[in-house]
Amino acid sequence: SRFFTLTDYPTGLPSRELFSLASKKLPDLGEGEVRIRNHWLSVDPYMRGRMTSMRSSYIAPFELGQPMEGGAIGEVIETNDSRLNVGDTVSHMGGWRDIAQISATGVTPLPDINVPEQAYLGILGMPGMTAWTGLNLIAEFKRGDNVLVSAASGAVGSLAVQLAKAKGCHVVGIAGAANKLAWLESLGVEPVSYRDRSAQELSDAIKLASPNGIDVYFENVGGACLEAALSQINEGARIAVCGMIDSYNAATPPPGPRNLSQLVVRKAKMQGFIVADHWSNYRQFLDEVAPQVAKGDLSYKETIQEGLESTPDAFLALFEGGNTGKMLVKLTD
Ligand code: NDP
C-alpha cells in the first residue's frame, strides 16, 4: 500500500514538503477487516483542521507519520466481513492511499443508483449532505427566500444554490473566477465576484444582485463575505455557518466582522453546524436528491487530478480556487 503521511503540523498554508508518500506491505487481513482498491480520493477543506496538534471538538488531528485519512471510493478486493463481497464498490474513510485495509464497520456499499461512483464523494456524499443540512435543518429555507451562498461554485455551494433555486428562492452566489460565475449564471443564480473587492464593494454588489435583501446566508467563507452579507440581511434572517475557508490557513485568527451588531438590529440568527451530527438524515437526503441527480435535474462539476502523487496538490488547490465543483483525485493502477 502507498499512502501519504503528514511529517509536521503546518503554520499558515501547508507547504507541499509536509506531505510524504510512504509505502508498506500490508499484513494478512485481520478479523472483521476489508481490503479496498481505491478508485477515487476526496480532498476537502475540513482536512486543514486536522493538520494541527490542537484537538478540535469534533475530529482528531492527523497523527504525524501515520497514514492520513479521508473520504474515498473503491472496490473490495478481499474481505473478512460477510456483509461485503469482493467486487463491491464502497465508500469509506481510508483515503490518501491506493490500497486501504480497514475495519469493515466504517465501509458502506454504494446504493444501486445510476450515477457515477465518484458522485458519492460530492453531490451525493458528504458535501451534498452538508448543503442539504445547512439549508433545511439550520437555515430552514422556504419558498420565496432571498438566498446568498459563498464559495457557491464549490462542492457544497453548487448544490446549495441549486436546492434553493428548486425551492423557488432568489439566489445569489459568490465565487472567484469568471468560468465559475458563468456556470452559476447558467444555473439561474445571480453571480457575484468577490475578487479585488472590499467588504463594502462586495456588499454593494450583493445589493445589486438581490435588491430585496438576504433572508438566508449559507456561509462557506467568512471574512469580507460575512461582513458584506451581514450588511444586507433582512429582519429575521438565518445564517447557516458551514465553514470559513478564508481563515483556515491564518497563522493568527483574523478579527471578526465589524458589523456583527446587524444580528441584533435585524433580529437575525446565526448558527454553525457539523454535518456528521445530522447523518441520521442521510437516507432522506439521498431519497430526495439522488433521483434528481440521476435525471440530470441537478448538475454537478468535478475537477479531477490524476494519480495518488497529486493528492497534496489537489488539497492545496482548494485554497486557491483551483476547483470548480468537487475536487477529486482519480487513481489508476
Ligand atoms: P469547495 O469545493 O467550495 O472548495 C473551496 C472553494 O472555496 C475554492 O474553490 C474557492 O472558490 C473558495 N475559496 C477558497 N479560499 C477562499 C477565500 N479565501 N475567500 C473566498 N473563497 C475562497 O469546498 P467544499 O464545498 O468542500 O467546502 C465548502 C465549505 O464548506 C468549506 O468552508 C468547508 O470547510 C465547509 N464544510 C463544512 C462542513 C460542515 O460539516 N460544517 C462539511 C463540508 C464542508 P473561489 O474560486 O470561488 O474562490
From TrEMBL:
Gene Ontology molecular-function annotations: oxidoreductase activity, acting on the CH-CH group of donors, NAD or NADP as acceptor
What keywords are assigned to this protein? Oxidoreductase
Which is an annotated Pfam family here?
ADH_N_2
Tell me the ranges covered by the Enoyl reductase (ER) domain, including all copies. Answer: 12-329
SMART domains to which the protein is assigned, alphabetical:
PKS_ER
Task: List, alphabetically, the InterPro entries matched.
Answer: ADH-like_C (IPR013149), ADH_N_2 (IPR041694), ER (IPR020843), GroES-like_sf (IPR011032), MDR_fam (IPR045010), NAD(P)-bd_dom_sf (IPR036291)
Full protein name: NADP-dependent oxidoreductase
Q: Which organism is it from?
A: Vreelandella nigrificans
